[in-house]
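Researcher: Please translate sequence to structure tokens.
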Amino acid sequence: MTREYAVPAAARGSVLGQAEIDAVAALVRSGAPLSAGRSRTEFEERFAEHLGAAHALTVTSGTVALRLAVDLLDLREGDEVIATPQTYQATVQPLLEHPVRVRFCDVDPDSLALDAGALEALLTDRTRAIMLVHYGGYPADLARILELARARGAVVVEDCAHALGATRDGRHPGSLGDIGCFSFQGSKNITTLGEGGMVTVHRSDWAERIERTRGNDIDGEFVHTTPGADVPAALPWMKYAEHIHRREVAALRRGGTNATMSEASAAVGLVQLAKLDTLVERRRSIAARLDAALAAFAGRVRVPAVPHGVRHSYHLYTFFVEDPGARDRLLAALDRRGVEIQLRYYPQHLLPEWRARGHRRGECPVAERLWFDQHVNLPCHPGLTDEQVDHLVGALVGGLREVPHGPGAPSGATRATGGATCPIST
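Model: Translation complete:
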């Protein structure tokens, strides 16, 4: 039997209502096509405009978006890809299909994004790409990462599944690097009826490749041929006539996927995108309540700093328990108080499929120490009522008071600031 929690984790990360119902109903009644129609085109255009990206292309999931991003890299045997270990498996799974060396880079202890210092030591002349995640909606500082990537000619792929609604210095994740990948799965900051994704690129040739691959066409460079006996003269504009005209294919990479987003999903996406600021503000208000509660527990917990110029979208609310051994006791205390906890995510390099490729414990010591000993994610989504947020805050305070802690903890609450600490008022 599934347990009912007073404060559940995000079964739905967004809020859907009458506006979404009306959008789907209007589409159904309109008689318009239910695939590859006006809603999808408009959703892509508005999404690209929102981000400041040249091209945005919808697909059926964030996983598909990441797979298409890896396809664009044209990886060859001997290439190297640097990736984050602090992510969901979909970020790095496509790399298992390629004969490349994946080098997992340790993370920054605050943002949990790739640590630029650790990244620099892993770069080689064979580095083809860097795959990073804006963990939890905290937009990574890409300035140094992009500088290092450009010097090596490496492509930067941003997994933005958590980061819609976030900004750094006024710019949106997904428009910073070379390729952005978004998820609209049901737990994300907006959803397109439970599943959906988007790929953003600046290069027109990459946009054209994704357009072909997400459909049913061959992902190749087509060459026009002279019409012959096998080319019908009637209706030359029809799709199959065009294929026959272009039957010679150079530089074939792969077949199509039929990963196009439905019109119903895109219609809901348009409504959700219009609600994005409101949905993220609700997440931020819950996060502020949690920040205030944690500020009273000096030296025992660490809340990552949000630097000036950063707008966190709080797909996940993350903090760290400093006392050795106290994290697991706190998780148990929260569970007893009716708060559902899901820790995200198990370090990827320690999963069986990556251990089979030679990865081992000790490879990313910061990510390992934080996840196994200190890392806590709390429910933080707009579906929570005010009463549930009150319950969450009370459970958090009660749990921290219950859990024993070592002597000598400082009395002033602290917040991490790039490795140092500074006092904050309570």
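Researcher: Any highlights?
Model: The chain has three domains: 18-216+257-266, 224-249, 276-404+411-423.
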